[in-house]
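Thread: zinc ion complex, take 2
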Amino acid sequence: MANNRSETNEMAKDRYLELKKILEGRRREILSEVHEKMRDVRVDGPTANLQGVLDAVETSEVDIQEDIELALIQMKAETLQKIDEALSRLEEGNYGYCFECGAEISERRLRALPFAVRCKDCEEAREVAQQRERMLAQRRGAASLFFDMSH
Ligand SMILES: [Zn+2]
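Output below.
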């Protein structure tokens, strides 16, 4: 029995390490993209940190291209923050579980969608439900259009 238990722990540990690798890999990727972008953007000297750039988004007059670049950097900064949150959830053992049914979300899914909060089944069920809702709304829309035209 002790053997079984350590095997389970081993699997949980493998998953933990794998998920950590996914998140940290994504984090490194985004950081290097941010650094690359920051080279393209006018900043207050080479020591300006990310926060400095984000402040610049709000305070300085930049041309449209730089606006876009800065907006991209800001989006990436937000993604970085999400990754940090996911990493701390992972440390607490709360990352990678389905919000709806509590099942483990597959590594494959998390690799593609690191911030997925539902397993594939629950996500699909949700999409089907949403689609049905949209169809009903469309039908209602069409009905009211017909109603309006008949007046
Ligand atoms: Zn689920």
